[in-house]
Specification:
This protein has 142 residues and is α/β, with parallel strands linked by helices. Helix content is 44%, strand content 15%.
Amino acid sequence: MISLIRMSLLFVVLGLSSGQILADSVIVSLDVKDQAINKNFLLAAFSMRITRWPDGRRIRVFVLPDRAPLHQRFVKQHLQVFPYQLRNHWDRQVFTGTGSFPVTVESMEEMYHMVSQTEGSIGYIAESFKLNLEKVRVVDEF
């Protein structure tokens, strides 16, 4: 009986820790240099409340589909809101004519490609993805 409880606890601990192993990274295009990106700026950019970098250039936001596990994890951990709250905010802005949707990409590979090819862009990627740092910059300041 005790060994069964220990095994159950081990599975719970392993299950919880395996979800935490892969940290997400915010990536930006190489032309975005020396920009201070804190949690407030990150939330404002991904919620489409701000549309320009501090130097005046347009921000292009890329996201994965709402149901993608990486998207859900990123929104909860880094933006500290629920994915449905972010979607409701986007919908409200678009339908009232005060904003637009971010660009949705279908995979991490497409996210990496679009951020690397689009000036002023921002997105996110799982740490397990092999990045070429000659094409994008990883932002760790938040």
